[in-house]
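chain and backbone:
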Amino acid sequence: MNDVFVGSLISALSTGLGAVPILFMRNITHRLRDVLLAYAAGIMTSASVYNLIPEAIRHSNWFVLSAGILLGCLVLLVMEMYIPHADLEDPDSKTFQLESKSFLIIAAITLHNLPEGLSVGVSYASETQNLGNLIAFSIGLQNAPEGFIVALFLVNQNIGRFKALGIATLTGAVEIITSLVGFYLSSWVNGLVPYGLAFAAGAMMFIVYKELIPESHGDGNQRIATFSFILGLITMIGLTEWL
């Protein structure tokens, strides 16, 4: 219990830690933004493909894995369709009032954090040593650029820098709740761990392909974003071997 709480707390606070530079700078180029998004996408892909999915299939079979992945994608799809949110580069965002637009951006980032917290909690419920620590660290690593980007957006909408930092930090706090939910459900319900791991992997891959990769390729920075994605992938694989 203590481990999952500490792990989820660290991964969640990484969102706020990544937003700290916003106190000292205001503008960011599309190029750097795309690099950060692609790097986060690489980390999430590696965590899903090389950690969550192999662990899920080790405790079950291909059918359980497939069901969990598809369910994770389906749930994220339904949530995206029915929960109000907006992308950071929404071309229609100018039609919103400041308060409404900021709320939608916060909702989008919070929505993305739900499966990440779940993956941390389920990983700690697994019997594999250090899997929880590895996933918590990887999620925290990719949360940092995400926190910086959302804080930058809020500052550019004339929201105070300290307030933007606080809001960015709070968007990651939802991971603590979903981590505990995932941990307790997996601990109490026999056989739920592989489903939970596969579900988290599917949800994360949905975010990578539906949101992060398209956004990182939308401003003519495809080549450097691709290398940044690969660097994130390699980073996570290296962490896996090290831990």
